[in-house]
Amino acid sequence: KKELMGHTRRVGLVEWHPTAANILFSSGYDFKVMVWNLDTKESVIMSPVRTITCHQGVILSMSFNTNGSLLATTCKDR
């Protein structure tokens, strides 16, 4: 069990990386996608590995290609 601290508003989506172990992506109503490495001993992770800020609205979906090299997102900002 892990507690992830990073988003400033509620989280709408979570997606596991298709090929990398223990890597989780989350998107929230703060318009950010955060990359988390869960392969740690800590039960509370205070910051993500990376934060992606490319949208001006709520992220509606996200999906990886089969080998995990690309992430696609759709957003209310079109």
TrEMBL record:
- The lineage's top-level taxon is Eukaryota
Respond yes or no to whether keyword Protein transport is given for this record. no
> Care to name a GO molecular-function term for this sequence?
actin filament binding
Entry's SMART domains?
WD40
Q: What keywords appear on the UniProt entry?
A: Repeat, WD repeat
Record has Repeat as a keyword: yes
Positions annotated as WD repeat: 4-46
Give the family, as the similarity comment puts it: Belongs to the WD repeat coronin family.
Q: What is this protein called?
A: Coronin
Its lineage reads: Eukaryota, Metazoa, Chordata, Craniata, Vertebrata
